[in-house]
Amino acid sequence: MEKTFRPTQTKNTMVWGLILVALIDIPLLLIFFLGIQGPIFFSILMGGILILIDGLVLSLAFLGKRMNYKLEKDDLTVNFGFRKRKIPYSSICNVQLSSTKLLLRLFGASWPGLHWGLYKAKDVGHVWVYSTKMKGDFISINLVDEKKIAISPEDPKIFLDAINAWKSRFGTDSPSEMKTFETTRKMVYAQVLAVAAAFAVFLGYLLWIYPSLPEIIPVHFDFNWNPNRWAHKSELFILAGTVAIFPIINTILTIKFGRYAKEILIFLGVIFISVIALFLYILYFIQSIV
User: In terms of CB atoms within 10 Å, which of 30, 45, 151, 282 comes out highest?
Assistant: First the structure.
C-alpha cells in the first residue's frame, strides 16, 4: 500500500525567494537596460541569462513546498516537484533515525525550506540530502554501495516504522547493480563535450581572425559599446585564458557531481555555453570595428 509523507515545513520560503530574485535582478536589469543601447545580441543574451537565473531561484523556492516522500511497491520515491528520485528497497542496507546538522554543501542547493545535494554532516560524513531543514532529526538511509541519504519527514518515527515494514526486501542488490541517483554516462560526457566544443569554436575563431587584426585593437568598451581602451592584439589570448576557465570548471563539477543531478548538469551547460557565446560575440564585434 502506498503512503506519502510530507517533509517538515519551513515558513517564509517564497518570501526569501522573492527577496533573492530582487537582489539578483536589480544589477542585472541595470546592465540589461544599459546594454540595450549597444548591439542587439548582447541584450538578447543578457535577457536569456536573466530568465534562466530567475527561473532557477523561483523553482528552488517552490520545490521545498512541493517535496514529499512516497513509499511505493518497490521504491522509496523522493518527489520534489518536476523531478523524482527513486530509491529501490533492494538498494537499501538499513534505515535509522539520526540527529545531525548539515555543515557544508559540496554540491547542490541550499535555501530556506529546501536543502538538496551532497553535504558534509556532523558525525555522519558525506550524505546526499533531500530535506527542508538544516539540523535536527533526520531519517538516515544507508545504501548497499555505502552511499548515504538523509530526508526530513514531518514525523520521522512514523516514517521509520512505515519503511521498516519493507525491511525484508532490503539489501538484495549488489553494489555493481546500483543505479540510484545515476544519470547515464552519455549525458555526463555530452554536457562536458558541448561546453568544450563551445570553447573550441571560440578559440578557433580567435586563431582564424588573429593574423588579419591590426597590431592595436580596442580591448574595452563602455555601456554604449564605444571603445575606451586600446592595446596590443596579444591581449586577446588573456581573454582566451579567461574563457578556458569555464570548460575546466564545468568538467570538474560534471565528472565529480553531475551523474547525480541531470537538471543542474544541463543548467550548468547552458550557462557556460551562453557566457562563452558572449565572449565569442565580443571577438566578432572587435573584428567588425577595426
Answer: 151
